[in-house]
Write the structure tokens for this entry.
Amino acid sequence: MKLPSRATKFTSAAGYVSILTLPVIAAVLLLLLGSATQQHRIQRQWYLQSAADTMVLSAATIMAREFNLLAIVNRALIANQVTHGQLLGLSSWYSHLATAALRLATVSSVIPYVNVITRYLATMMQRLEQPLQMMIQAALSMQQVVETVLQTSQWLIRSSFAMLIPQTLAEIARQQQLTHQPWVLLHSPGVVEFPWLWWRAVTPTSATNDEHLFADMVTASQDPFSQNRSYRWFDAGLVKVEKTGGSDLQVEQYGRWSWQALDTVAVHINLLFTRQEIPWGYGAAYQTNAITRLTHDGFGRSRAINRRTSSMALSRQKNYGVIQAPHYFNQTALAPSQWPSVILQFDGVVAKAGLQFSRPEPIPRKDGRQERANLFNPLWEPELQPLQASEKLILERFI
């Protein structure tokens, strides 16, 4: 039985098919190789983009921390000034109590037994006044030292954080094994290399030429004791005892600061056709400039309520030296378009991050108003941001 010829024809056909499939197999292999290469390239691009996002977000985090630290120190400077008003208020308040005790001892000197108690009380008040004034003077001096330390800390924060950002990004690049990739950090808006514009983002400001911004913040932050110590001690119809007082911050024409405090207590007798004010106790204290005139609403409306006693208090003012207007870092132009941000670029990837000011909803303002961005509350946060069209154009053409 002869079958070799049919087998020979089949083997020849199979050989032709194998030769025809070689290009297909090669194409498939090339396709798989190109796909693997492209996948590796995409993975590399994703990795670089993630690293860029991490680096630029770290830079924005450090910037937000700097803003928040400056805001905390500004709040501390405000508290420091409020303390000056409290200490001067304590001085004038005690002085008015001492004079009131002395007047009480004088009036009750003809009353047996009572005069012994009142005289002892007046003597003790007089003896304690001098040590108390020395303690207040020491506390005021300490507050001035604290103010100097706070102002110096703001300068250190500004200088150290600007240098910390490049160091941090270099460390992140090293951890991500990207040391061979040259990167550049740019400002936005502006697209200028960091940190040249960062020094101008927040500038040193003096309370003498900030349009009373810092002074208004201090006045609004005063506690009830230093702001207004006026109330009615006694009311029996025709006879009333009025207590007045307060601590006021005075800003002179050329920005010079003065803290002043005044306290009075007087007996008012209202008769049919006349009203008599009998001064009973008074005291006053100041830093920088003495009290020379009394306004209607000043010192808890002392002039309006105890006019005669308030005038007598001007002759009993205690001088606690000179106070300097504070210096601090601030930026009043903080519209959302001017919030600082940075752009990081290396090896074909670009990332952008910046700051946002946001007050948490569970902590609303007492007045119900929306708070604008400022450097008095530490509410700055970092966030990744998209590139603007103008920034893309500049990066493509010039960088």
In short: DSSP finds eight helices and eleven strands in the chain. Helices lie at 4-107, 114-175, 198-201, 213-220, 224-227, 298-305, 307-313, 389-398.
